[in-house]
Structure formats: C-alpha cells, structure tokens
Design goal:
Helix content: 40-55%
Structural class: alpha+beta
Strand content: 15-25%
Radius of gyration: 23 Å
Number of strands: 12
Shape: elongated
Number of domains: 2
C-alpha cells in the first residue's frame, strides 16, 4: 500500500504540473490540442472540445501540445490564438505555469496538513536511513533502509534536522575512521561499526538520511502558527532542493551519485509513507518542489530550456530558426530517455528484493 501511495502521489504531481501549462494557455485563449501524461504510444485516448487527452506508455513526465507543432494543422499560420503568435510575456507565463503549479501545490499541501490535520509532533530521537546504496560503506556495515541511528560514539544525535546535520557532519569529518553507531531496527537495539570512505578528504557512506518523523500530530494553537509552520517548512525544503541541484555544478562527482530515478523515488516515498500522514505529506511536498526546481533548469525539453529559447528570442527580436529549436528539443528528449533508463536499471538492481535474488 505504501508503494501504491507513493506512485499515486508521483502521478498526481505530474498531472498538476501539466495542468498548470494547460490552464495558463486556455485561460488566455491560446489554442491547445493535446494534454498527455507520459510519453510514447497512447494507452488511453479521449477527445473533448478539440483537445485530445491521453495516458501514454512511458510514465516519465507529460506534455501539453499545441497546434503550432502540428504540420497538418488546418489552422491558419497567422491565427492570433496560436501560441507562437502571442506576446512573449503570455508565452512565458504558459512555460512557467507548470513550475508555479508544483510550488503552489507543495505550499498548499503543507498548509492543508497544518490547518486540517495539525502540526507534526516533535520528531523522535535519531535519524532515519531512507535508502542505502549497495557496495558503499553503509551497506557494508549492515545498515538498511528503515534503520534508525540514535547515537555516534556514545553521543546522542538529538532530534529533527539538527540530528541529520550532526550525523552528516560526523561522517564527513571521519574519512577512513571507524564510527560506533547505536541502531534500532524493528524495535531491537544494537550496535555496529561504520567506516566512511575517503572522498577527496570528506567521509562518504552512501546512505540517504531523513529526520525520524512520526505520524503523530497536534492541533495548531492558532492559524498564525499553522501558516508560519507551513511557510518555514516550504522555505526549508525549497532551499535544500536548490542547494542539492547546485551541487551538480559545484560538486558533480559526489552529487551525481545521489541522483535518483523513478524506482528510487517510489522506494523512498514508500519508506516515508510508512511513517504515517506526516511522512506522506513530506514526500508529496518534497517531490513537488523537486519537480519544480528540476523543470526550471535551462536544459533541453524542460520548461527552463524553453524559457531560455524564449529569452534569446526576446533579445534577438525574432524567433530562433525552427531547425535549431528542433535539434535542441530532440537532443533533450534523447538525453531524458537515456538518463531515465540508466537510473531505472541502476535503482532497480539496488532494490533489496533484487539484491536477494542476485545473491541466490
């Protein structure tokens, strides 16, 4: 059920992102002829009011299509309601609407939890291991997803994000040194040793960490407290996400190993969902913010890449030649599909059930 919940959240966020583009176009009277979730052949297709709605075979995203891209379209090329014939500001709004929709959804989810469900209770002591990479130091020590680390070398980690940062700092500061961990697994407490690998002077263990949140909540004392809590959480998640993507530029070697594909995302979502409603809300908000930041990157096929082309057009005073735009987008599609396949294969082989089959 946790896996199904994680899949449902992932699918909903993609729909919301594409709905942002769709609504931004239709509310401005811009012609739209397709709304698709996924890529490739259509599994389900329905047409309504001139728009074809489709669920496609590769659930790696989605897209809104416009008559501008259809060579066989019967609409006149100078039709003022075609996207390409609208002012740059209106086209930019359509491009940015998906990112805005995901950011708004993340904020609304956090607000909804704070107002309707309540504020999460104080996290339990320690740090949750969300995922472990096979072949890395964490896996070699015996750590696994779902473990809770309470102390390092006899020193309690504390609670919340401070506990996570404390463990990260101790790991980074101990390359090649042995750390004594106090672990809880399935209610049983035990000790194990962990030796971070030396990664350019910093310790690395190959594990993803999360505050040890619980499913318990308490009512907010006032609407102000609920909104302040949601705002603080939203800003924290957004800041950490932006820093994470910035690390791909400033520290690609280490950060690239932490990039996750759809399989790993669902696995981590299931792990967080198992902690109750607070974990599910955190997963939905974090994933929605990640989709927003990812799509804002100035890369081919992503919203940021299309916005970059639009900005160049604004500076030049005329559209970029279609052959250049097409080459830019096609290269992005090949890159996206290729990277997705690599990540799916890698993350699938790292699942514990697959590892057990390989071991046998």
């Amino acid at each position: 059920m946790n896996v199904l919940a994680a899949l449902a959240v992932l699918g909903l966020l993609i729909v919301i992102h594409e709905a942002g583009h769709f609504l931004a176009a239709t509310t401005q009277g811009i012609r739209v002829d397709g709304f698709s979730i996924g890529f490739g052949p259509a599994l389900i297709k329905r047409q309504r009011k001139g728009v074809t709605y489709a669920l496609r075979a590769l659930p790696l995203g989605g897209f809104v299509s416009f008559p501008d891209d259809d060579e066989n379209s019967e609409i006149a090329a100078d039709d003022p309601d075609l996207l390409r014939n609208r002012p740059i500001t209106q086209r930019a709004l359509v491009i940015c609407a998906g990112v805005i929709a995901n950011l708004l959804l993340a904020w609304l989810v956090l607000i909804g939890q704070a107002v309707i469900v309540g504020l999460p209770s104080q996290p339990d002591p320690g740090v949750l291991i969300v995922a472990v990479q096979p072949g890395e130091a964490a896996a070699a020590s015996g750590l696994a997803a779902g473990d809770h680390i309470l102390s390092v070398d006899g020193n309690e980690l504390g609670r919340g994000q401070e506990a996570v940062q404390s463990l990260v700092d101790q790991i980074k500061g101990s390359p090649g040194s042995t750390l004594q961990l106090d672990r809880v697994r399935s209610g049983n407490r035990s000790q194990l040793t962990l030796t971070p690998e030396d990664n350019d002077g910093n310790g690395r263990v190959g594990a993803q960490l999360q505050a040890n949140i619980t499913g318990r909540t308490r009512p907010a004392n006032s609407p102000v407290e609920a909104f302040n809590h949601a705002d603080s959480q939203f800003i924290s998640l957004l800041t950490r996400t932006v820093k994470g993507y910035a690390g791909l530029v400033t520290n690609f070697k280490e950060t690239a190993q932490q990039v996750s594909g759809p399989v790993k995302i669902v696995e981590m979502g299931a792990q967080l969902t198992s902690q109750g409603s607070s974990g599910l809300v955190l997963f939905a908000a974090l994933l929605s913010i990640n989709l927003a930041v990812l799509n804002a990157l100035p890369l081919p096929l992503l919203d940021g890449g299309q916005l970059l082309l639009l900005l160049i057009e604004g500076v030049r005073g005329q559209p970029i030649p279609e052959r250049i735009q097409l080459a830019f987008m096609q290269s992005g599609f090949l890159l996206l599909v290729g990277l997705s396949v690599v990540l799916i294969v890698r993350d699938t082989t790292q699942l514990s059930v697959v590892q057990q089959l390989i071991g046998h």
